[in-house]
Amino acid sequence: MNLHQLNQIFNGTILMDGHIPGDYTKAFASDLMSDVLRFRMENTVLITGLCTVQVLRTAEMSNITCIIFARGKKVTPDMLALAKEHHIAIIESELTLFEICGRLYQGGLEPVCR
Asked: Which residues does the UniProt record annotate as the domain HPr(Ser) kinase/phosphorylase N-terminal (predicted)?
């Protein structure tokens, strides 16, 4: 599913469109960036409540092209600039990680497995 189809499922706010063609097939939720680095993340959306530049650095290293910030976390201008530089889509949502994950799973995204 593309970025806009993905966002329709949980009605977030797209702050940055990463301009990455293709579809997302998997989702991974974590506030622990060391866990993100453990798995293959192609075509994966990262859902997190951790709102720091380190999340973007981790996404860059893991080839993640879409980050959903949960629980009403607000992205800083520095984070948006870094996302633009690395073509990472950014979405903010008021929902919890649990709610976003449940909706995306029902919408057809698969979990990241080893």
From this structure: 61-103
What pLDDT, in 10s, does the model give residues 48-98? 999 999 999 999 999 999 999 999 999 999 999 999 999 999 999 999 999
44 vs 65: CA distance, rounded Å: 7
Helices (H), the chain: 3-10, 33-36, 53-62, 77-85, 97-106
Question: In the prediction, which pLDDT does 43 show?
Answer: 93
From CA 25, how far away is CA 80, in angstroms rounded? 24
Sketch out the chain's domains with CATH numbers. Answer: 3-111 (3.40.1390.20)
Prediction pTM value: 0.95
Integer Cα distance of 88 and 79 in angstroms? 10
d(CA 2, CA 49): 22
